[in-house]
Amino acid sequence: MQYETEEQQVEALKEWWAENGKAVIVGIVIGVLLVGAWMWWKSSQEKKAIAASDNFSQSLEALQAGDHAKVKELAAAKADHSGTLYSAYTGLTAARAAVEQGNLDEAASELQWVVDNAGLDDVGVIARVRLARVKAALGDAAGGLSVLPTSYPDVFAHLVEEARGDLHVAAGDNAAAREAYQAAIDTGRAADRDALQMKFNELATVGGKS
Q1: Do the domain assignments include residue 1?
Q2: Cα 178 from Cα 190, distance rounded (Å)
Q3: Tell me, what CATH number does 153's domain have?
Q4: Coil, strand, or helix at residue 209?
Q5: Which residues contact 95 (CB under 8 A, 6 or more apart)?
Q6: Domain hosting residue 17, numbered range
């Protein structure tokens, strides 16, 4: 639309502003609020990650010093940093400290927290393997088998399958144990291939469940 005079342009602008000005202002305000909220969230996440990192560093130092009480104290704060990698590491550290003290129930609780809250799949896989072994040590091989991951990155295949084999042995299913041990052997990544092969060989002549 063309306007013949400047006054007509001004009047048209006034009319447009009357009709749309409120919406424009609201849009600007919302945009400012969204940017502000995003910047606040980013800052809070950075602070959360730093706090989680410090908490993990202190728990690791306490573990190395044999101060299990301190490790437990620091682990209690990990929920404040849930969703961060370091909070999961703190949980793994606390579980190790509990195992060193012979407190397997506490170790299982810490590992379950990591399984439920781990932000990364890799950490979750490690936590599940360790939780499965702790459950087996508590006499619950079936429960341990239930928490082992059914899908995982290839790099963890030897850990998962060897643990699965050990738990099947504990549950008395030698055939399933042999199958799991073979899968672990086939990865070619076992830390102690000879020991793993020995486990398989010991079951080689035993069929089915013992």
Answers
A1: no
A2: 15
A3: 1.25.40.10
A4: strand
A5: 106, 107, 108, 110, 111, 114, 130, 134
A6: 6-203
- What are the backbone dihedrals phi and psi of residue 173, each rounded to the nearest 5 degrees, phi first? -105, 85
Tell me if 101 is assigned to some domain: yes
Cα 39 to Cα 55: distance, rounded to the nearest angstrom = 24
Q: Structure pTM?
A: 0.71
94 Cβ contact partners less than 8 Å away, ≥ 6 residues apart: 59, 71, 72, 74, 75, 78, 110
In a domain, residue 121? The reply is yes
Q: Could you read off the pLDDT of 2-40 as tens digits, one per residue?
A: 445 666 666 666 666 666 655 555 555 556 555 555 454
Residue pair 99/65 in contact by the 8 Å Cβ criterion: no
- Among positive and negative, which fits the CA dihedral 104, 105, 109, 115? positive
Residue range 154-195, pLDDT digits in tens: 999 999 999 999 999 999 999 999 999 999 999 998 888 998
Domain total in the chain: 1
Q: Quick check: is 208 in a domain?
A: no
Hey, what are 85's tokens? Answer: 């990698």
Where b means 16+ CB within 10 Å and e means fewer, 3-31 reads: eeeeeeeeeeeeeeeeeeeeeeeeeeeee
- Residue written as token pair 């793994």: 92
From the CB of residue 87, how many other CB atoms can be counted at a distance below 10 Å? 28
Axis-axis angle for helices 193-203, 174-187 (nearest 10): 150
